[in-house]
Amino acid sequence: MGDLYRLTASQITSGVRNRDFSAEEYICEILDRIEKVEPKVNAFVTVNKEQALNQARILDRWIRDGGNVGPLAGVAVSIKDNICTKGIRTTCGSNMLREYVPPYDATVVTKLQNSGAIIVGKTNLDEFAMGSTTEFSAYGPTRNPWDISRVPGGSSGGSAASVAAQECAVSLGSDTGGSVRCPASFCSIVGIKPTYGLVSRYGLVSYANSLEQISPMGRTVSDAALVLDLISGPDEKDHTTTATPAIRTTGGDIGTGADADKRGLRVGLIKELTAGADAEVSRIVYGAFDLLSSHDCSCTEVSLNAVDYALASYYTIATAEASSNLARYDNLRYGFDMDPEGYEWNTYFAKARSNFGPEAKRRIIVGSYVLSSGYYGKYYLKAQKVRALLKQELKSLYKDYDVLIAPTMPILPFKIGERVEDPLKMYLADVDTVIANLAGIPAMSVPAGFSAGFGVGVQIMADEFKEQTMLQAAQIVESGAGVNRSPDL
Amino acid sequence: MAAARNDGWMVKIGLEIHCQLTGLKSKLFCQCSSDYRGMEPNANTCPVCAGLPGTLPLLNEKAVELAGMISLAFGCKIPDRIMFYRKNYFYPDLPKDFQITQYNAYGVSSIGAEGKLEYIPGAGSGADTGGKTARIRRVQLEEDPGRLVYETGSMESSPFALIDYNRAGMPLVEIVTEPDFIDPRDVRIFLNKITSIVEHLGACDTSLEGSVRCDANVSVRGGNRVEIKNVSSFKEVEKALTYEIARQKAKSDREIQVRSETRHWDDARKVTKESRTKEEEQDYRYFPEPDIPSIALGQEFLSAIQSLTPELPDDRKARFVSSYGLSPHVAQVLIDNKQLADFFESCAKINRSPKEIANLIVTDLMGLVGDDKKDSGAIFAGLKIRPAHIAELAGLVDRGVINRNTAKQILGQIVKTGEMPSEVANKTGASMIQDADSLSKAVQEVFRSEQAAVQDAKKNPNASNFLLGKVMQLTKGRASPKAALELINKKLKEEQARPD
After folding, report:
1. CB–CB contact A201 B95 (8 Å)
2. Which of A239, A332, A371 is opposite residue B291, by nearest beta carbon?
3. Do residue B265 and residue B321 come from a single domain?
């Protein structure tokens, strides 16, 4: 033994189920691994050591007694720290929630636990998921496992790093404007943002409600797809899921599933996005394009005109919603230790709320501005119109194409601290990913190659609820790219 | 008072009425009970209504139905699609620091809009010719905030405030009228009608403290609008408006501009006061609630709520007039308070003398109800009265066993003890004196003691009423007035026939 921590989710479950090794042995190895690499990576805000070990032991006893186990039995998962876990501190990477312990589990957490998964910890993120580097966390920056002087991407940088550094098998992140796909690309793993409404948001601490989805991450397409299967489906606690068809992505068996389309996929490459990327990135995207071609896919370059306005629309809507969502953090009901004695409430609120970090403050201010009376039509309403146009344009493209591909990130991972002072430049890097969030369509990043030692992800987008098709394309890219490596840590 | 009419002062009054949907089992966006009153502070909360991070609102469909029924009752149009908005402002009683409400500035999406409601103004208000109409601007569904509790009962003197979120998330219907009222008395009549409607719909138990609240805005001569808040009852709304109109007129007379502001009604001193806290121009940054997708209602919803709507006050009044033969006025008094109307019908089921029953309730029983309870849903609180009492009492009057005057006295006793009317009548010997012997004795005695009046009555037949009054006095009201008057007239004729 000694390298159980490297296994994929399906390998772990079958190993535990067949009693090749115990869940306890595996979790112990994972915890050792975490202890070893965390000083370099800082992927976790909280490691759930005792509870994880306990759960592993209970699972082992259950299996010894002949009990049935779920499809993620024994698998170590990490959960982004903006997804509520009962009894485990959930900080959102913020000082505002430094001592906040939720009294309830997010729906996805319950679903994972019911399928036998073991939560090993809560992962680092940009404060309230606002950022693309995981530098804006009150708990220190997370480092890219491939080069710890560089950012892992964000905001789910802790989740991506924990998966890439083999501190867990799979992770749940959240994707509001690329927050799962960006770090998946930078850390050379798979990240899937599902169709809006496919996965319950109950228990996900809201940043921008109309854009975000809880999103699975794994080292392989099938691992991420397996988790997606388990967490998707209508939830009576989330109105935005109720109109959702229950789809199955057939987990680890995508390419040969009964639904698999034998005819080659129709693939469109979005010209504007590929042209706007660094040369190295665009080279790898075209590589994936050729690979799909050689797998009987018909590949065409296409235009997406609304791209020009997507970023402005995204930042208007996201900040507007954020400014309202973050209002409740006034430290009156929960949060951190600060005595209200002697304050008039307005002063107390102001003092407590000064504990937000710079990026959260920036977005609250921008969002308040775009919603203020007299500006609603000029900004928020206009942004919604762009969003509708974009949806329309994509809808008509999906009549002719099964999937659209583009870079996930237009750039390679940069040095920690390099862009912190230039928020606008940082926002520009989200141009490829925000499209799927605005349109509500599924999108994923899959490793497609390496450049200068860094993974580069290709982004695959499909029409609403066409996750199955998207995953088929992803598996072709994954199998052809041959990028199955691990970072040296 | 005449000045309150539209005599050049151009008084304009608009109302904002908040009505809790206490008829629902749970809150607007979670499963917590709507019956929060009397609970230990903050015991009636869950992660959703406490606004904990990550929670999402789950719309109570029954609340949409009830609000739809209310909208229909107020003659509102119901749009095909409704939406919820966030109203953003910081306040400690607001768990999320925004309120989920509805908003029509970007297109009508509230449950009701553009309605109107007729009401019958009281006597002497200058429009005795018929009904008046107030236009309803909108009806909207929203959540109630929590409550700030001050140890000493007042913000000024308490060293700290406590927050109770038990109420947070209670379903609330806000009814906003156009500024169509010119007379504070009409406002009170209108508010009684609204109360009666929500009671008939089973939407709101208006006897619960704070279940119905009203803010009013008022201006004179096209001047600035003043908002009046903190008014505890509908009677107080009338007083507050009367005071405020007088205040604004006085200013206007001296050519001082009325400031646009919010004033609070001081219940103790009966004046409106400037708000102590400085009211800033609030920017609520409304935008559509992303967690509640817009809701398509359509014809199916309309048919459903139409079929669910029970008999409303106007229809019930018409039925009271046509089936029970009540006068429109008496029917109106009964209908204005659902409890009273229900009580009447319970009595009428036991004893089919509806007119006598209605008379006993409207004139005699209401005389025993305290002023503070007249507009409330707990109208008989503290009175030991049941429908069986009134039914039996009406029967006794109808059969001539007692007269109405006696009935009134007996009623006074019943409400204290809860005894049956026949018991009281027997105990006090209150039954009417019908036999000719006792009656003629009484008449003879009056004729002896009231010589002058007898002489008078001989010339003027109307004066015999005075003699009747004396007979009634002598018999402590137990004489049958009809029989007594016959005897008096007979005796007067005998006296006339006799030479002086």
Report:
1. no
2. A239
3. no
Cβ contact B20:B142 at 8 Å: no
User: Could you give the CA distance from residue B494 to residue A412 in angstroms, rounded to a whole number?
Assistant: 126
Instruction: Please write the tens of the pLDDT for every residue from A263-304.
Output: 689 999 999 999 999 999 999 999 999 999 999 999 999 999
pLDDT category of residue A247 using cuts at 50, 70 and 90: low
Instruction: Kindly determine whether residue A371 and residue B287, on different chains, have CB atoms separated by under 8 Å.
Output: yes
pLDDT score for A110: 98
Are B70 and B123 contained in the same domain? yes
Of B289, B304, B319, which closes a domain? B304
Q: Give the residue, B427 or B440, on which the prediction is more confident.
A: B440
B151 vs A295, more confident: A295
Q: What is the pLDDT of residue B434?
A: 61
Question: A324 and B53: CB-CB below 8 Å?
Answer: no
| pLDDT tier for residue B360 given thresholds of 50, 70 and 90 | confident
Q: Could you give phi then psi for residue A298, rounded to 5 degrees? A: -90, 120
Domains and CATH numbers, chain A: 4-258+443-481 (3.90.1300.10)
User: B9 with B83, same domain?
Assistant: yes
Residues 6+ apart with CB under 8 A from B60: B24, B26, B27, B28, B29, B171
From chain B, pick out residues whose CB is under 8 angstroms from the CB of A333: 50-52, 95
> Where residue B68 falls among pLDDT bands split at 50, 70, 90?
very high
As annotated, the active-site residues of A are: 80, 155, 179
User: A238 at the B interface (CB within 8 A)?
Assistant: yes
Query: Which of B56, B59, B85, B292 is the best mutation test for A, with the most CBs of A within 10 A?
Result: B56
Mean pLDDT of A76-105: 97
* Contacts with A, B 272-291, CB within 8 Å: 283-287, 290-291
Smallest CA–CA distance, residue B281 to chain A, in Å, is 11
CA-based Rg of chain A, rounded to a whole angstrom?
A: 21
Which chain A residues in 103-142 lie under 8 Å from chain B, judged by CB atoms? 103-104, 106
CA distance to A62, B356, B486, B493, per residue, from B472 (Å)? 94, 21, 13, 20
Edge-first strand listing for the sheet containing A454-462: A44-47, A118-123, A76-80, A170-175, A213-218, A190-193, A443-451, A454-462, A403-407, A266-270, A298-302
Q: Is A203 close to B96, i.e. CB distance below 8 A?
A: no
Domain boundary among B412, B428, B444: B428
Q: How far is B277 from chain A (nearest CA, A)?
A: 12
Give B413 to chain A, closest Cα distance, Å.
54
Mean pLDDT over the full length of chain B: 86
pLDDT tens figures, B266-305: 888 888 888 755 556 689 999 999 999 999 998 999 999 9
Domain holding B452, by residue range, is 436-497
B158 part of contact set with chain A, CB < 8 Å: no
Does any CB of chain A come closer than 8 Å to the CB of residue B155?
no
Pick from A27-31, B111-115, B122-126, B496-500: least confident: B122-126
- Beta carbon pairs, A and B, within 8 Å: 100
Contact assignment for A324 to B285 by CB distance below 8 Å = yes
The complex scores an ipTM of: 0.94
Nearest of B478, B448, B499, B495 to residue B467 by alpha carbon: B448
- Supply the pTM of this predicted model: 0.89
d(CA B444, CA B449): 9
